[in-house]
Design goal:
The structure is a single chain. With 314 residues, this protein is of the alpha/beta class. It has two domains: 141 residues, Rossmann fold (3-Layer(aba) Sandwich), CATH 3.40.50.720; 162 residues, Lactate dehydrogenase/glycoside hydrolase, family 4, C-terminal (L-2-Hydroxyisocaproate Dehydrogenase, Chain A, domain 2, Alpha-Beta Complex). Helices cover 43% and strands 19% of the residues. It is built from nine helices and 13 strands. The two termini are 35 Å apart. It binds adenosine-5-diphosphoribose. Adenosine-5-diphosphoribose binds next to α1 and α3.
Length: 314
């Protein structure tokens, strides 16, 4: 990708941290931030632009004054949304965020019609599905952040259990980006050693549980969800796309028969490159994992059904 121009819609905690991480990697020529809250994108763009003074490569950071300024981007990252507040049901939140996503997506279609979209807003898999339906683009161009983050959280739990292998541990998590996610610590390696040689069943169960609660653990301490982990995972995905590195990363993608499902977006390992999703990697799942994956897919389908019930696609 020659322009290396990345747009970020939603310059809150996650969007701004993704921008900062990308800027520190020095892999984009330009990053442009937009946020509906006045001054947010402007202030963060200036701050990050000044931080790039000490980055390995220059990156131009700007703020968009309107969605129309997020134009001709190679990649657009969508993090716009509202957090769940006390009196909101899950369904309320889903419909509020879906409505935001719809308007933001229509802007992307208008102003960056050739972009690859990295979807980040929650509930992640359902929002990724909504973006896919709204755009009707080829499925390879709509990619949801899921396993890159959950997998990093799983690798961290494996490291915490073993006390070694940081940065050397696999990250395989499939399924939804939520309570029914399917971490697969038994399938990864630490260095070149299979974890099955290092951990027993009980330890695997503990790692799976803690991975699922990885986000909640941060909320417990901070009162807000994490953003360094998400920012770093987004940057990892963007880097693979911009550099056409063909890295294998678990992402939420539209299935078309793979893993036995269609018309749903869910986390599976994919190959990321200049076309977005270059390929969906098909793994063989054992019966127990297939059951967990099914439950996970069903939880996403329930979310999609809420959108349908509320006439979202009409
Ligand atoms: N257009 C642009 N920006 C918007 C819009 C919109 N229509 N609606 C909301 N925003 C902005 C908000 O003003 C806010 O700055 O989206 C930003 C969201 O940022 P935060 O509230 O800080 O939330 P953050 O922690 O960054 O999470 C963003 O990612 O991981 C998911 O669950 C998370 O859906 C959430 C999203």
């Amino acid at each position: 990708m020659t322009n290396r121009r990345v747009g970020i819609i939603g310059a809150g905690a996650v969007g701004a941290t993704a921008a900062y991480t990308l800027a520190m990697k020095g892999i984009c020529k330009e990053i442009i931030l937009f946020d509906i809250a006045e001054g947010v994108a402007q202030g963060k763009a200036i701050d990050i632009a000044q931080a790039t003074q000490y980055a390995p490569q220059p990156t131009i950071l700007t703020a968009a004054n309107s969605p129309a300024d997020i134009k001709d981007c190679d990649i657009v990252i969508i993090t716009a949304g509202v957090p769940r507040k006390g009196d909101m049901t899950r369904e309320d939140l889903l419909m509020i965020n879906a409505t935001i996503i719809k308007s933001v997506t229509q802007d992307v279609m208008k102003y960056s019609p050739n972009a690859i979209i990295v979807s980040v807003s929650n509930p992640l898999d359902v929002m990724t599905y909504a973006i896919q339906k709204i755009t009707a683009w080829e499925r390879n161009r709509i990619i949801g952040l899921a396993g890159a983050l959950d997998g990093a959280r799983m690798a961290y739990q494996i490291y915490k259990k073993l006390g070694y292998g940081a940065g050397q541990t696999g990250t395989l998590v499939i399924g939804d980006h939520g309570q029914n996610m399917v971490p697969l610590p038994q399938k990864v390696q630490v260095g070149d050693v299979p974890t099955t040689d290092l951990l027993d069943d009980e330890e695997f169960e503990g790692i799976i549980e803690r991975t699922r609660n990885g986000g909640a653990e941060i909320v417990k301490y901070l009162g807000t969800s994490g953003y360094y982990g998400p920012g770093s995972a987004i940057a990892h995905m963007v880097e693979a796309i911009l550099n056409d590195s063909k890295a294998v990363v678990s992402c939420s993608v539209g299935l078309n028969g793979e893993y036995g499902y269609q018309d749903v977006t869910v986390g599976v390992p994919v190959v990321l490159g200049k076309n977005g999703i270059e390929e969906i990697v098909q793994m063989t799942l054992n019966t127990k994992t297939k059951e967990k994956f099914k439950k996970s897919v069903e939880s996403i389908q329930e979310g999609i059904a809420i959108l349908e019930k509320n006439g979202f696609f009409e």
